[in-house]
């Protein structure tokens, strides 16, 4: 869960869920104007810290996001700040008209904005459109937005940058401005965590307005709480993870090393050779069908370095016959089909990147339509697996409809082998006893935190070595 000042602030809402959440507050006795005042003044608190007495220009659109902008401007004016409002068009809702009437400062009309009027400043605040936008900005609005963004040193988006589709993260206009800060109003939106929109948003902050828990809402992952082993723990009680190697041992070794640092008490690699394996990673060269019958196993990981030949298919089938929770990664995802899952009862976590996601969708007769969260949910429901749809943005979906968004991680993760490290982290948390969906979230967070602790241009091996430090942050 996200650490925040209010309850329910880890939930991530669609545009429709946000509208219903606001409607519920109004039914409970609030009003659109009251919520706008709370949201606008809450946003103004953050903007005041950003401007530090410098000139602020607020761009207001015709809807309630524009109304928020008038409230922000008035709150800054009341504090003695330098603020001007640029109105792209006249307010189009009663609440926005009321907010404009209450604003006591200067308003410039955007279409007639002269070269010397509000054309430059220090902090630009984008309140043109919010989470309801589903079409590209008009040429006039886009030109005004980009002109003001270019002429200010700092840029703040209120709720979402104008030109971003809330439920998909799609950028509706080419080359949107880059923002330093985005202030989510009331709740996080899906686009705050999704590509390609997320990189333009800068730092994310939440402005609570009292929204209650929303049924079936997604959640945003934050630092998990992981307990140290009890005083009487031993290696088997902490969890035995079986890592199934294959034709290319490097991936399984990377996964095993990461798993050692993520909490499991015993990591055993089932491989044909001990060559290039660290001394503290146990290798079992016995027959896989025999060694995976060890009833001390608490989880199994199959896929990194597995290969895609007949031997790999056999190893995948044997691994998934073990009646313990499993992580399926890499090559195993390309080989996986309905028959492999038909008899499974324990949690199964799949960790596909985009290409592997397509392969799974073909294997399970899905059309692959919709946004990344929608596709992950559909695959989870069709397969019964927990799906970690990884990449520059990461989404976790469970068969029961639960959905979680991973935090932004460094782009230095875009190097070979880091996916094996992620699989090892998730499998280790499974082996240590975490429920499947929770284990996936814990592994994703540990992976991102380990990357944050690494120097730039790190290798997958360096990433794996940082996993214990990431785990230490959770204790």
Descriptive keywords:
475 residues, alpha/beta, Rossmann fold, UDP-N-acetylmuramoyl-L-alanine:D-glutamate ligase, 2 domains, 7-stranded parallel β-sheet, 16 helices
Question: Can you characterise this structure?
Answer:
The protein is of the alpha/beta class and about 475 residues long. Strand 3 (about 85), helix 4 and strand 4 form a beta-alpha-beta unit. It has 16 helices and 19 strands. The two termini are about 15 Å apart. The chain has two domains: about 10-220, 3-Layer(aba) Sandwich (Rossmann fold), CATH 3.40.50; about 240-470, 3-Layer(aba) Sandwich (UDP-N-acetylmuramoyl-L-alanine:D-glutamate ligase). The model is unreliable at about 1-5 (pLDDT under 50). The strands form two sheets. A twelve-stranded mixed beta sheet has the order 8-1-10-19-18-17-16-15-14-11-12-13, with helices on both faces.
Task: Please sum up the structure shown.
By secondary structure, the chain is of the alpha/beta class.
